[in-house]
Structures are given as C-alpha cells and as structure tokens.
Amino acid sequence: MPAPPSYVPAALSGFTDKLSFGERIKNIISYYVQDYVFQKYWGEWDSYYSQVLGRPTTLCEIMGKAEIWLIRTYWDFEFPRPFLPNFEFVGGLHCQPAKSLSEEMERFVQSSDEHGIVIFSLGSLVQNLTDEKNNIIASALSQLPQKVIWRYKGKKLEMLGANTRTYDWIPQNDLLGHPKTKAFITHGGTNGIYEAIYHAIPIVGIPLFADQIDNIILVYKLSSEIEIQLSEIHHAQLIKPLDRAIFWIEFVIRHKGAKHLQVAAYHLTWYQYHCLDVIAFLIGCTVVIAFIVFKCCSYCFRKCGNILQKSKTD
C-alpha cells in the first residue's frame, strides 16, 4: 500500500498528516524501524505458512494474493492518502440504530434528568488496573453532574459515587444511541470510536496502547479542522458500509476473484518497486557519458596545446 512518509504518519507515531521537518525525519525512521521489526516477526509466520501449505512461501506473498481488502475505516476516520483499487472502506459496518435498554438500565438512565449520562469504557483488555487507580477514577467520575455507566469488572470500589453504576458488560452501541447520552469516555478502540461517530457523541479519549493514541489524535484533528461533523460524513455515504462489504464479498465469489483490481506492484521486487535499478542504470549512464566527454575534452585540449606549442617553436 502506498505510504509516502512525507505526509502519511507511521503507525504508533502519534503524528498527523501535517508534518514538520523534524517530524518527517522521525516518521521515515519509524517506517524503516517498523519494516525491520515486521520482517523479524513475520519470519515465524513464513515458516508456519510454508509448513501448512507444504511449499516455501511468505506471509507477504499470501497477503499479496488477496482479491479484495475490506478496510474498517472511511474518510470520516482516516487521513487523506493513496489507496489501491482493491481496497474498499467498510468502517462502521457493525454500527446500527440503538435498541431498547434493559428495564433496570433504562431506569438509571432516565434518573439523570436534564444532565444526561456519560459512558465510560476502557475496553475488554484493560482489567488489571490497581484498586488505587480504579478508586481515583471512581472519585473523578463521582464529581460529574451526569450519571455515569462504567464498564468495570472487579472489586467493589470505596470511592464509587452515587451517580455511577458499574457493569461487567454494557450494550455500548445502544447506550451511545440513547438520546440522554452526552459523552463517551473511551480508550480509543476503533469499534467504539465508530459507534460514537455513528451516533454523533462527543469523545473524551484516554488512549492506553497500540493504535489507540493514533486513533484519538486522528479524531481530534479531523473534528477540529473540518466544519462538518464526522457523523454527517459517515451517514452521507451512498452505500452503507455493511452493504458495501456484502457486495464485494459476493462479487469476488461470483467472478472467482478480482484480478483486474490488483496492481502489478505485488509482482515486483523491493528494488524494482522503488525503481532503484532504473536509478542505478541512469546514474551509471550519466557517469559513463560524463567520463567520455571529459576524456574527449582532455584529448582536444592536449592536441590544441601541442599545436600552439609547435607554432611558437617554428
């Protein structure tokens, strides 16, 4: 996938698409470091797939044979950048209109009156926070005028406020689509952000690891620099993300592939892709021509010098 380091931020870099000179230096170094790390990491996968298929192969080769790529973003959650013809955006395909909440949860939500509710979730992977940190969070949430629904699994917290209710699991999409929801405090996971975009709910980001920092920076930058809301961009699509995903899956099955969308770059070596062989050839030709011209000029100067010296002697 084309990724010019001059304006496409590397993964986990925390940069936007507006890079200063120093950031461009860091960005291109990040790309090379990531390539090196991935090559080391993918070596194990190369061995695994070679063993499974019974022939030498690589993970990159297998990925390059993909007929279509369904990308879980859209231009409401992506910096403008070049993509390939067999890349289709289906970001937010899991989002849907909100369903009714359980009676107990609905009563709690309605008790918020005009202040509304705040949804707080750090995802399913964050379950090892200390009791001290959880109590600090609970104390901060207790100071909000809104009622808070917190996805939390652990011991009962001493600092838990009367305005906060914890649940092992929450119907996040349905809560974000509730008319009383005022904000979403999130770790920055892609699914949660898309649900907030879909329902036009403001986001308060607490990124923890992996792509979450990039996601929060992306949302902040896009929402602060464009006049139209991200939710409006998302809902302005002619074809819904889920329908687009279904269409392309059926297209590939029906036509036994989508070879006409695959670029020839998959079949090039790394030096051919970057035209290094062509650049080396042109540099070589330039050096040879310059050398020939230099030798010819030197020969002419020597001849002229000999003729002038002979004339003076005569």
UniProtKB/TrEMBL annotation:
CDD domains referenced in this protein's UniProt entry, alphabetically: GT1_Gtf-like
Stored PROSITE patterns: UDPGT
Keyword Glycosyltransferase: yes
Statement: the UniProt record of this protein carries the keyword GTP-binding: no
EC number: 2.4.1.17
Entry's Gene Ontology molecular function annotations: glucuronosyltransferase activity
Compartments in which it is found: Membrane
InterPro entries: UDP-glycosyltransferase (IPR050271), UDP_glucos_trans (IPR002213), UDP_glycos_trans_CS (IPR035595)
Segments crossing the lipid bilayer: 278-301
Membrane topology term: Single-pass membrane protein
Keywords, comma-separated and alphabetical: Glycosyltransferase, Membrane, Transferase, Transmembrane, Transmembrane helix
GO cellular component terms, A-Z: membrane
Gene3D superfamilies: Glycogen Phosphorylase B
Catalytic activity: glucuronate acceptor + UDP-alpha-D-glucuronate = acceptor beta-D-glucuronoside + UDP + H(+)
Family, as annotated: Belongs to the UDP-glycosyltransferase family.
Record protein name field: UDP-glucuronosyltransferase
Organism of derivation: Naja naja
Lineage of origin: Eukaryota, Metazoa, Chordata, Craniata, Vertebrata
